[in-house]
Amino acid sequence: MNIKFCIIFSLFLRNVIARGGDRINPLSSASDLGFPNHGYVVLARHLFEDNQARHPRTDITRGYMTNSELEKAVKEFGRRCSHISRVYSIGKSVQGFPLLVIEISDKPGKEEPEPAFKFVGNVHGDEPVGRELLILLANWICDNYMRDPLVNLIVDKVHLHILPSMNPDGFSLKRRGNANDIDLNRDFPDQFFPWNNDEDARQPETKAIMSWLREIHFTASASLHGGALVANYPWDGSLDKRKHYYACPDDGTFRFLASIYSKSHYNMSLSKEFEGGITNGAAWYPVYGGMQDWNYIYGGCFELTLEITDNKWPNAMELPTIWEYNKMSMLNLIASLVKTGVHGRVFSSDRGRPLSGLITIKEINYTDIREHFGICEVLFFSVQDAISAEF
Ligand SMILES: *[C@@H]1O[C@H](CO)[C@@H](O)[C@H](O)[C@H]1NC(C)=O
Ligand SMILES: *[C@@H]1O[C@H](CO)[C@@H](O)[C@H](O)[C@H]1NC(C)=O
Ligand SMILES: [Zn+2]
Description:
By secondary structure, the protein is α/β, with parallel strands linked by helices. The protein has two domains: 3-9 and 343-390, no CATH class; 28-341, 3-Layer(aba) Sandwich (Aminopeptidase), CATH 3.40.630.10. The protein has helices spanning 67-80, 129-144, 149-157, 168-173, 204-215, 251-264, 281-284, 291-299, 319-339, 370-373, 383-388, and strands spanning 5-7, 85-92, 98-104, 116-120, 159-163, 220-225, 228-233, 278-280, 302-309, 342-344, 357-361, 377-381. An eight-stranded mixed sheet has the order 2-3-5-4-6-9-7-8, with helices on both faces. The two termini are 19 Å apart. One 2-acetamido-2-deoxy-beta-D-glucopyranose binds next to loops. Keywords: Carboxypeptidase, Glycoprotein, Hydrolase, Metal-binding, Protease, Signal, Zinc. The active site is at residue 307.
């Protein structure tokens, strides 16, 4: 078995202090984010149960894939594009719907010394744009392999894993939570508060993600949400529960990655609320039990939370435009794993066995993830070394 590892870092450390969050302060006001056609107000983002009980007059699901149509689309993709993909399941939702993943790579299913990236859509059942975009992304990559250099780079040098819907039950119920009405983006173990530590008590969708991460050592990932337009990065939670910028050890790298998304997007970086279209999670509003911080702490995986539409559930006619707005962001974010960073393999000196390894940059105090992975070899680099390292 090949053991792979990869770490990315930023050479473009900038002092960006993300602002914003004002209009989603739960104690002051809930903003009207639109939906004029449907005659109801969507309350802000993650903080609120988004009551679909407000009875939209028209069927908001029109033009969106149902769960069985999504399953069909994934399986059709797997057949049509079998030369560079495979389809697998990481578990089932509460109501027994399979959580299907598309892996795209020139050697799908094979472990290689290449970074793995994952996209997760539809974490919140009532934020369905991501699941549509991820199917479009997979098909666009399939159609443009051998035609587009960026796509070639992704297929040849990255293992891309796409979970279009983490919460199919919430989608069919048109609500934020899963079938047990649990917000999955509050269901992960948290670094500051122990209430989610019992893994057995987690929701099946959460457990599926947790064991997925143990199996595949993702370098980076992003989940797709709706209700705002911003690329959000760790920490999502602050120790004192207050709203303020709370930087994680890899703050510079995260700002770099979030900026890749925002700057490649049609207009995310033009945000008036968030400087550069990016924000530290805790500076916006603190979240505990979220998937993003958990990925970083327990998996060493650099996860962003991408809010890609102000409307959580826009008219399906807008989907092709939203896809165009996000296409380059998605591709550039994945490709950044190859275009930056340190990649390589570590072999034992005696019999040439591959070893599990971890690269650390001397100047950065990492959260220690070794205990979670049984990693034995630690390679230390200084930032200067790392810039030029390739081994
Ligand atoms: C981005 O463009 C969309 C569609 O034109 C618009 O609704 C939104 O307000 C714009 N956002 C920013 C930050 O410019
Ligand atoms: C890292 O931790 C060490 C020891 O706790 C401390 O002396 C140092 O200032 C820290 N460095 C950074 C960049 O936080
Ligand atoms: Zn969300």
